[in-house]
Specification:
Helix content is 63%, strand content 11%. By secondary structure, it is an alpha+beta fold. The longest helix is centred in the C-terminal third of the chain and has 62 residues, at 216-277. The two termini are 67 Å apart.
Length: 287
């Protein structure tokens, strides 16, 4: 009991929980840093265009396409979506859709098939509109988001930024699950003495020493349980001693009665035999 009391201080449960919260925070930060680093490395390697690449290179990309004659969609960097219109505004080909295509139609309706290039911004996207030598009119559109440099990856995979966000979110969930599992194991180990003590008390196995669990709140419960164990042990030992004393008294009384009863029975048998010899059957039966 004294040893348990000395160790009952232990680590506060709040500090233990805060420690695992810190572990989770560090792991989540590491996951997001790793995801961002992977995206940055892909940009540095040229596998992914940075988010501002389309806006920064819209003018020069348009001029490069103008100098190649008829538009070749394969020569358009994957940072852009395109729409090609005839001189009358009819859509000839496009790989853009939705609001971006509607904006391209507006630019095509307002523009002319000329050598000049116009770069505009709208709703987080950048547009470059220019005429080509064959009389067609092209509009390039780019969102302010990173994009794969490979056309096949761009068309088959989500946006690199969305992949980074998904990887960060899944990694964060995995980190939280890992920390939660480790925290559960640690708390279970620290609660083991409490479980063991409760099981032994339920079996009335009271001759043991309650071990400390390492957590202040758990140790306080264990200290109280150790006091209960000691009190219960003293109470049971007193009851067992009383029952043993009663059994000894009964045995002693039985022993004390055995001798005179034996003598009395022997005398009664002798009297019965004598009376039978005298043919006094009634007295013999009474004896």
């Amino acid at each position: 009991m004294a040893a348990l009391t000395r160790r009952a201080k232990g680590v506060p449960l709040s500090l233990l929980i805060a420690k695992y919260f810190a572990y989770a925070f560090v792991l989540i930060c590491a996951v997001w840093v790793a995801s961002f680093t992977a995206l940055s490395a892909s940009m540095n390697a040229g596998a992914v265009y940075p988010a501002n690449w389309g806006a920064a290179h819209a003018g020069e990309t348009a001029k490069a396409l103008q100098g190649k004659g008829p538009l070749d969609p394969q020569s358009i960097p994957t940072a852009y979506r395109y729409a090609l219109f005839a001189a009358g505004g009819e859509l000839l080909a496009a790989d853009m859709d939705g609001a971006m295509l509607e904006r391209a139609r507006e630019l095509a309706a307002d523009g002319e098939a000329a050598a000049e290039t116009e770069v505009t911004g709208s709703a987080g996207a950048t547009y470059a509109s220019f005429g080509l030598s064959d009389g067609t009119f092209c509009v390039l559109g780019s969102d302010y988001m990173p994009q794969f440099a490979s056309p096949s990856l761009r068309d088959s995979l989500p946006n690199p930024q969305n992949i980074m966000l998904a990887a960060g979110a899944l990694g964060s969930l995995a980190a939280v699950a890992l920390v939660a599992r480790r925290a559960g194991r640690s708390i279970s180990r620290k609660m083991a003495p409490l479980t063991d003590a409760a099981e032994r008390v339920s079996r009335q196995d009271l001759d043991f020493s309650v071990e400390a669990g390492g957590v202040r709140e758990v140790n306080e419960v264990l200290s109280a349980m150790d006091g209960m164990r000691s009190s219960l042990k003293e109470s049971l030992e007193a009851r067992w001693a009383a029952e043993r004393g009663q059994r000894e008294q009964v045995a002693s009384l039985a022993h004390d009665l055995k001798t005179p009863l034996t003598v009395l029975r022997a005398n009664a048998d002798f009297v019965a035999e004598e009376l039978e010899d005298e043919n006094d059957s009634d007295l013999a039966a009474a004896a």
